[in-house]
Specification:
elongated; three-stranded antiparallel β-sheet; Immunoglobulin-like; disordered N terminus; mainly beta
Length: 151
């Protein structure tokens, strides 16, 4: 960002009226990549555990150049079941620490990403039919993984 004293800029502008200022506002970068090609699986009372991996990162590669987010921010991960009556248990683990990070409300705590620092984290999601809730419901659900950015 360039900062000019207002008086000096005003004098310069009067002498040379063909000045254009182009400012670009930095935007946060957050990317989510699935490690599998598909995550469509049947989950029923005979299902053991289905495991899915995904990565969250704050950079992108454009023309072989890595561009890291210039803005710091925080995010959380939320797991949603499209059919709340479908008996499914979800567990989410940080692959680095191997700790479960999903809280009782099916959200993680806020995860902080610092500006201009590369961030890449792998997560494991385990899905299992909850036999304790032996309910008769529809056969299909969508398990939705939301990445919620916070300023």
């Amino acid at each position: 960002m360039l900062i000019f004293p207002i008086e000096a800029f005003a004098r310069y502008y009067q002498k040379n009226k063909n000045i254009k200022l182009c400012l670009k506002i930095a935007e946060p970068i957050i990317k989510v990549e699935a490690k599998q090609n598909t995550i469509v699986k049947k989950i029923n009372k005979n299902t053991q555990i289905e495991e899915y991996h995904f990565i969250v990162k704050n950079y992108e590669i454009i023309n072989n150049n890595k561009k890291v987010s210039e803005i710091g921010f925080s995010f959380n991960i939320e797991i949603k079941n499209s059919n709340n009556k479908f008996p499914i248990k979800c567990e989410l683990y940080d692959c680095l620490s191997e700790k479960e990070i999903l809280q009782k409300d099916d959200k993680t705590e806020s995860i902080i990403i610092n500006k201009n620092e590369e961030f890449e984290r792998c997560y494991k999601l385990y899905l299992k039919y909850d036999k304790e809730k032996n309910l008769k419901t529809s056969n299909e659900i969508d398990v939705i993984v939301n990445i919620n950015q916070k300023s």
